[in-house]
């Protein structure tokens, strides 16, 4: 595995074959994709980046936005010579992926979006801004509170009880974020605008959990209908007893669906 620093972003590049570019969500990192990278994606070239202000990629003092994150993903593709890629996104990363697919339709071969949303609803935007303020004002102590709250609220009861490592992963992922970088990422998500979905031509798979409060199944099904020709409406998969951290909570099921989806794009 090679670790690149591209415009101060940490980018992991591993394997050969069709390129898959993985974009994590708010409070995530390249490790969000480890269960899939070690399994179903083993025969692909897997590129995993830490978004600006997240994990190993420092917040550089410039304003963050979904558009800037999308530009960062496209810049990584350019620097690595990737001209056709499959995009994987989780949560906030699904919005970033949609912006990339709308801006550069020829670049994106397909999209698999986990816990997907087009943009946060108004009530969620208010809560996300409050979370940004807490992270900024309270620092590490605030991040610990945020991590505990989100671990309990964003994963299913079944995941927490049957697989304690899931809760540990989510909590650790959030607690390791830089408070200011996390706050800026929250504000970028709170200000997120929908991508021009009519420009997206890539086949799309949407995966969510039946207990996902961020991307509830009814909202994801409505989202699927907004993807049009030539690919047609996106396909939706809903996992039972699963919350918002789908690749971590249901890695085997995600791998099975992703394997079938990517096989259909050859």
Task: Explain how this protein is built.
There is one protein chain. The chain has a single domain, classed as Rossmann fold. The chain contains ten helices and eight strands. An eight-stranded mixed sheet has the order 1-2-4-3-5-6-7-8, with helices on both faces. Helix 4 packs across helix 6 and helix 4 packs across helix 7. The mean pLDDT is 94. One of its GO terms (molecular function) is hydrolase activity. This is Alpha/beta hydrolase.
Features:
266 residues; alpha/beta; Rossmann fold; eight-stranded mixed sheet; 8 strands; 44% helix; 17% strand
Distance between the termini: 25 Å
CATH topology, which one? Rossmann fold
- Counting helices, strands and paired strands, the structural category is alpha/beta
- Beta content comes to 15-25%
- How are the strands of the largest sheet arranged? 1-2-4-3-5-6-7-8
Large-scale geometry: globular
Overall average residue pLDDT: 94
Low-pLDDT sequence parts: none
How would you summarize the topology of this molecule?
Layout (H helix, E strand, L loop, with lengths): L1 E5 L2 E6 L4 E5 L10 H4 L7 E5 L16 H14 L5 E6 L1 H12 L4 E7 L7 H33 L2 H6 L1 H12 L3 H12 L13 E6 L7 H8 L10 E5 L6 H4 L1 H13 L3
Parallel strand pairs: 3-4, 3-5, 5-6, 6-7, 7-8
Antiparallel strand pairs: 1-2, 2-4
Helix pairs in contact: 2-3, 4-6, 4-7
């Amino acid at each position: 595995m090679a670790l690149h620093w591209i415009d101060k972003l940490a980018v992991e590049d591993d394997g050969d074959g069709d390129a898959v570019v993985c974009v994590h969500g708010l409070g995530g990192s390249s490790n969000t994709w480890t269960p899939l990278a070690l399994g179903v994606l083993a025969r692909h070239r897997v590129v995993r980046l830490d978004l600006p202000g997240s994990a190993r990629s420092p917040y550089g003092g410039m304003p963050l936005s979904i558009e800037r994150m999308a530009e960062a993903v496209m810049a990584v593709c350019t620097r690595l010579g990737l001209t056709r890629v499959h995009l994987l996104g989780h949560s906030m990363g699904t919005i970033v992926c949609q912006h990339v697919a709308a801006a550069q339709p020829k670049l994106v071969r397909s999209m698999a979006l986990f816990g997907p949303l087009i943009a946060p609803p108004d009530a969620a935007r208010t809560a996300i801004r409050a979370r940004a303020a807490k992270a900024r004002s309270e620092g590490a102590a605030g991040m610990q509170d945020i991590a505990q709250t989100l671990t309990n609220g964003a994963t299913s009861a079944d995941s927490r009880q049957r697989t304690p490592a899931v809760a540990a992963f989510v909590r650790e992922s959030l607690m390791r974020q830089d408070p200011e970088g996390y706050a800026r990422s929250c504000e970028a998500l709170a200000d997120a605008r929908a991508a021009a979905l009519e420009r997206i031509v890539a086949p799309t798979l949407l995966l969510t959990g039946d207990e996902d409060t961020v991307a509830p199944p009814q909202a994801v099904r409505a989202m699927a209908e907004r993807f049009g020709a030539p690919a047609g409406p996106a396909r939706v998969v809903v996992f039972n007893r699963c919350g918002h951290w789908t690749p971590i909570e249901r890695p085997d099921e995600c791998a099975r669906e992703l394997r079938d989806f990517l096989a259909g794009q050859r």
